[in-house]
Backbone:
């Protein structure tokens, strides 16, 4: 294979891994919320956009840099998530999934419309911090340091979230609080607070992805809606509510998308949806979802 083709292949794999990093974090947040709260959170894309815009506003209005925004922006958007859960979502937990979907979709439309009215649809630039600027020369390609940072942070966040939910006492309390809240209350655990914190955590993951995306893509009011259809497909393929499924499918489909751009570019925008159709045909619960 010619060296040029190798460079193209490696470059597209890197881009696929970057996209997969965002697919993984966003689908992870959706999986946490659906798996523990049984809510299809269509506001996730708007919360991703809010994370990016919050980082941009912290820098441009308050002079707060990227490193502080990595913590502050997810926390600020999580507070917004707490308000949504306490005043809106809490009223529909006993209803069918479609009500949660419609409510969160309506919230997403309101949020995105508010940002669009204020900032329009044109993108706002957000520069990466100096420490993460530049690239590493690998002879056959240049590896941007910031892209490498995004992949590393995504892996750490995904693994840490899985360990938190599956391997700690707090995660056990969260799972028990959603499966049998009456029994958990008898142990003196504040179930409504646990549910609120779970939703806030899922929202914070979306906002963190937005902060990570801000230096790579222009910050825009439509950046979330453009991505969420793909992310929902990733969640469905991995298995609704499956945390390992969300992580592995997110990264895996990002790489598949990158390879498709090399060998057959016209199919790159549809390969994930073709995969979703095939998976649901032969395994309706998803790759790692629980069978009904």
Residues:
């Amino acid at each position: 294979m010619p060296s040029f083709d190798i460079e193209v292949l490696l470059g597209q794999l890197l881009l696929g891994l970057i996209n997969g990093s965002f697919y993984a974090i966003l689908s992870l947040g959706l999986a946490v919320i659906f798996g523990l709260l049984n809510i299809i959170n269509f506001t996730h894309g708007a919360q991703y956009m809010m994370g990016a815009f919050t980082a941009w506003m912290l820098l441009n209005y308050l002079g707060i840099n990227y490193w502080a925004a990595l913590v502050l922006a997810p926390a600020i958007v999580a507070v917004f998530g707490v308000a949504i859960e306490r005043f809106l979502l809490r009223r529909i937990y006993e209803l069918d999934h479609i009500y949660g979907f419609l409510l969160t979709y309506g919230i997403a439309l309101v949020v995105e419309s508010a940002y669009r009215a204020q900032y329009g649809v044109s993108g706002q630039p957000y520069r990466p911090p100096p420490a993460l600027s530049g690239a590493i020369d690998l002879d056959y390609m240049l590896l941007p340091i910031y892209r490498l940072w995004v992949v590393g942070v995504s892996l750490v966040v995904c693994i840490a979230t899985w360990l938190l939910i599956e391997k700690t006492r707090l995660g056990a309390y969260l799972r028990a609080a959603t499966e049998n809240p009456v029994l958990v209350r008898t142990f003196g655990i504040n179930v409504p607070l646990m549910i609120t914190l779970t939703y806030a955590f899922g929202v914070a993951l979306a906002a963190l992805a937005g902060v990570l995306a801000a230096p790579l893509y222009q910050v825009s009011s439509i950046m979330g809606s453009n991505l969420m259809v793909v992310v929902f497909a990733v969640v469905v393929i991995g298995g609704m509510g499956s945390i390992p499924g969300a992580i592995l499918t997110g990264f895996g489909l990002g790489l598949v998308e990158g390879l498709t751009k090399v060998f057959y570019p016209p199919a790159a925008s549809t390969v994930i949806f073709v995969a979703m159709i095939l998976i649901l045909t032969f395994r309706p619960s998803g790759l790692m979802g629980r069978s009904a």
About this structure: Strands lie at 135-137, 142-144. The chain has a mean pLDDT of 88. The two ends are 47 Å apart (CA to CA). The first helix runs from residue 3 to 37.
